[in-house]
Amino acid sequence: MQEIGYHILRPIVKWAFILKYRPTVIGKENIPKKGAIILCGNHRHVADQFNPLIVTRRAVHYMAKKEYFESKQRWFFKMVGCIPVDRSIHDESAKVLAKEVLEHGGALGIFPEGTRNKTFGTPEEVELLPFKYGAVSLAKKTGALIVPFGTRGEYTGKKGNLITHIGKPIDISKMGLD
């Protein structure tokens, strides 16, 4: 996978994101520096993927809806190594690309809800949408660790308002998940 574009844009995006939203990320030590991982988080805002990205130097290839690759910003999504997903089908080509990232010891980003959760309320009131099975299936097939993360708060730019917790990696390789 091409990662040059990711490493060129990452510092710019990182500092723009930090200056605009002033996020707090807890548990950055839980992101392994090497080996296949799948970052899995809740998804309420278009910028959710940046929260774990600002604390790791690893290139993370996020699964992204194919519509992003049909927009004026398609250059950005291609350059940072996102994987286009046609959500109207079981997109085999997206699965192949995701599996390739993991088989090469890379990092993949997935929002297991499959779309942005647009339910409103306090973080305690918002319910997660049903999870899709892609993250678990890919982890089982490739031996990748699942690194969960959850973001709460609003993207307002107030310090202490946007908080992401990164959990300890989960190894599902020995779990009976057939």
Mind telling me the C-alpha Rg? 16 Å
Topology, number of strands: 7
The CATH topology: Glycerol-3-phosphate (1)-acyltransferase
- Spell out the helices and strands N to C: HEEHEHEHEHEE
Strand content: 15-25%
Strand order of the largest sheet: 1-7-6-2-5-3-4
Broad structural category: alpha/beta
Shape: globular
- Reading off the top of the CATH hierarchy, the class is best stated as Alpha Beta
DSSP helix fraction: 25-40%
How many strands, what sense, and barrel or not for the largest sheet?
7 strands, mixed
Average residue-wise pLDDT: 85
Number of helices: 5
Number of domains: 1
Low-confidence stretches: none
Compute the separation of the termini in Å: 29 Å
Oligomeric organization of the protein chains? single chain
